[in-house]
Amino acid sequence: MTPRTAQALSPTPPPPAVRHRPCTTPRRTHTLPVTLLLPPALDAFHTLTRSLYEAYARAHLTSAAAQSAVHQRFGLLSANWNYVIGQPHPARLAWDQLVACTESRTRPRREIHATTGLQYDALVLHHLLHQSVSTTAQVVGHDTSKIRYLIAPRPLDSGHLLPRL
């Protein structure tokens, strides 16, 4: 092997411009907040419902857990917003997402007596959180007449009535 062949087989160092040098600039120890622009419809929906969503969640969870749950659900809604607004009842879908994270169906409040999940939600919003029938209907995504029916006092069972004379 000649010196010229040995030189051709040995690895050549990279040119000076390509050499890797250690980073000498100081690294930032803090991060800047990121501001995301939401679609206008989602921004409006968030503005209209966030406080009631948090109030409902606080009725079932601790304050920190409620805030976190609502934040996560709005993140999920944001990520799937095109799907949500393509549904026949977007508010109903969003409400169902919130209810799922509060576990209000598996651990309901004892003072609220309801036969269905929607009736339970309507009673919590209307009686416990003092929301109007129309606000309750808008938040849960159902008609006002249905919510009015669900929160109405129940008539006595006919078995408890006195017989007619």
Overview of the molecule:
It is a single chain. Helix content is 54%, strand content 0%. By secondary structure, it is an all-alpha fold. It has a domain at 40-152: Butyryl-CoA Dehydrogenase, subunit A, domain 3, CATH 1.20.140. Helix 2 (40-58) runs antiparallel to helix 3. The relative contact order is 0.09.
Shape: globular
Structural class: mainly alpha
Helix content, binned percent: 40-55%
Largest sheet: none
Based on the coordinates given, report the CATH architecture of the domain at 40-152: Up-down Bundle
Strand content: under 5%
CATH class categorisation of the domain at 40-152: Mainly Alpha
Radius of gyration, whole Å: 30 Å
Residue-averaged pLDDT: 83
Q: Could you state the order of secondary-structure elements as H and E?
A: HHHHHHHH
Distance between the termini: 126 Å
**How many helices in DSSP terms?**
8
Number of strands: 0
Query: Could you list the spans in which at least 5 consecutive residues all have pLDDT below 50?
Result: 17-23
Can you tell me the CATH topology of the domain at 40-152? Butyryl-CoA Dehydrogenase, subunit A, domain 3
